[in-house]
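Incident log, structure service

09:12 report received: a user says their structure output differs between two submissions of the same chain.
09:20 pulled the input from the user's history:
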Amino acid sequence: MLTSKDIACVVVLYNPDETIAMNIRRYSNTVGRLVLVDNSSEDHSEMLEGMDYLPLMENTGIAHALNVGIEHLSEEYIITMDQDSLLSSDVVEAYLKFLNHHDSSTVGAMTCQYETDRHHARKKGGFENVKLSMQSGTIFKRSVLQKTGAFDERLFLDVVDYEYFLRMEQMGFGLIRINDAVLEHHPAETHEKLGIKYGVASPLRYYYQARNLLWTARKYHSAELYRRLLIKWAKILLLFDDKKEYLRMFRQGIRDAKEGRLGKYVQDPDRNSDL
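09:34 re-ran on a clean worker, output below:
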């Protein structure tokens, strides 16, 4: 029988503060081993003293940081976490219950429900096949990662999880959502307009989302990702007050996706001149 000691965890950091450090310490004992991979340009080892801490000293992107953390570990089962999520023992126990009582030979990863200030999730028992989820709070299998390949570092930020799940499905592995696993997650700043609660991130994040959604949708012929791309576009048009910069970066993301220009965004005046 598997126990929590058989599960490891990778947490990706970016400019963490004391609150984030405290939250991580709260759940560090829910798994057998936990490693922190820091994408910040500053060292935070003093704040995170006593923890397994890997400072990268620059923002290398979420995919690279996850890959570094996974390579640092040896466990078969690995939960990946954003710094704005809070892992609970209930989530770990729900995963263990599935692993110990069901055949998971064709399962590539297991994911959870998300409790946020925009969405209330409740435990409802059972499990179901899903196509997409966030990587935060998801438990991955090392043996499957070795067959499918690591997270695609060319995407740098956003849609890294969607791309991996679609690649995993293409290779015959399923994604299962465990309905009793509910993860507390604190996403981007929440606004409300016309009775709609929505998240607002920086224009740069919308560049990555537009570029990576379109590039991945084209790669896997995913109608769902095309739909999500259109929703992002409509959200800017209908809900954002400061539309100009968001639309400019969104259009640039679309253009770069069509040209296959991936990696970390680099400001290029020639690219911006006709946007």
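09:41 both user submissions now match this output. Likely a transient worker issue. Closing.
09:42 reviewer note: The mean pLDDT is 94. The CA atoms of residues 252 and 274 lie 10 Å apart.
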